Amino acid sequence: MKVIFLDIDGVLNSNDTLQKIHYHQKFTGISPKCAELDEDNISTLNKLIKLTNAKIVLHSSWRYGYSKGDGAILTAFREMNLHIDDIVSIKIPNKEEAISAYIKTHPNISHYVILDDYPMFPSHESSFIEITADHGLTESYFPQILKELDV
After folding, report:
1. Nearest CA to 113 among 41, 46, 55?
2. 2-148 falls under which CATH superfamily?
3. pLDDT digits (tens, 9 = 90+) for 95-132
4. Rounded Cα–Cα distance for residues 87 and 12 (Å)
5. Residues 103, 3: Cα–Cα separation, whole Å
């Protein structure tokens, strides 16, 4: 099984997202349907999933709301066609430790990649891909991600 450990802030939203929201609101007076997620970044993730057939495991702090069935988060994901397969433990606050525990309890993981905008994964350094918060997830990361997932 191939897994993408996914962060949200800085990966599926970015500085570009804030500019798009500001522009949209300024000229239409209407907020976008989900101001916290970027449609372009989600579209890129969905292309990546189709290419790799990887499962999405949320390691973002958004996992706390997701695990509690937070309607706003679940609705945002649904509206943006974002399917989350699983989350790392909410009982382990440290992302690196939570990912390590997840991998340990899922021996069928053959390849994985960690997408995050903050480098805090020294024990998973070779599988970590730092996404810049300026633009979030773009296709420019595909070669590195595909290599890590052995595609």
Report:
1. 55
2. HAD superfamily/HAD-like (3.40.50.1000)
3. 999 999 999 999 999 999 999 998 999 999 999 999 99
4. 16
5. 10
Distances (CA, A) of 25 to 14, 37, 61, 72, 142: 17, 15, 27, 20, 32
Q: Which amino acid is at 20?
A: K
Alpha-carbon distance of 120 to 45, in angstroms, equals 22
The DSSP bridge pattern shows strands 86-87 and 55-58 to be parallel
For residue 65 the two structure tokens come to 């709301």
Whether 145 and 129 have beta carbons less than 8 Å apart is answered as yes
The closest of 124, 106, 123 to 115, measured between CA atoms, is 124
Q: For residue range 42-67, list pLDDT tens digits in order.
A: 889 989 999 999 999 999 877 776 66
Q: Is the C-alpha dihedral spanning 11, 67, 77, 147 positive or negative?
A: positive
Indicate the pairing of strand 128-130 with strand 86-87.
unpaired
pTM: 0.84
Q: What is the largest CA-CA distance in the chain?
A: 51
